[in-house]
Amino acid sequence: MIPLFGPVPGGMEMMVILLIAVLLFGANKIPKLARSTGEAMGEFKKGRQEVENELREMQESGTDSVATETEPATETEPATETNTSTDSE
Fold first, then answer.
1. Cα–Cα distance between 44 and 71 in angstroms, integer?
2. Residues 6 or more apart in contact with residue 66 via CB below 8 angstroms
3. Measured between alpha carbons, how far is 60 from 67 in angstroms, rounded to an integer?
4. Using alpha carbons only, how large is the chain's radius of gyration in Å?
5. How far is it, in rounded angstroms, from Cα 63 to Cα 69?
6. pLDDT in tens, the chain (89 residues)
7. Residue by residue, what is the 3-state secondary structure of the chain?
8. Global confidence as pTM
9. Residue 21, Cβ neighbours under 10 Å: how many?
């Protein structure tokens, strides 16, 4: 399997990336940043799983249930134009 973004960095590259992160964010903010990133990834995975489940249920039940779940279209009367401007000629 070919990685999407190229080769995964090794040990020395990871140390340089970690050093840059510490310099940019500070040692105190790194754990908070990692925690919020982890929570965001968890929420993303949860949302993706919910969408996949809904799509799977729609495929299993067929397209008939989609048509019955939507409200029937109501006919609207055509709009009539009224001339409210007064022309003084």
1. 31
2. 58
3. 15
4. 29
5. 10
6. 566 666 777 788 888 988 888 888 888 888 888 899 999 999 999 999 999 999 999 998 876 554 555 555 555 555 555 555 555 54
7. CCCCCCCCCCHHHHHHHHHHHHHHHCCCHHHHHHHHHHHHHHHHHHHHHHHHHHHHHHHHHCCHHHHHHCCCCCCCCCCCCCCCCCCCC
8. 0.44
9. 15
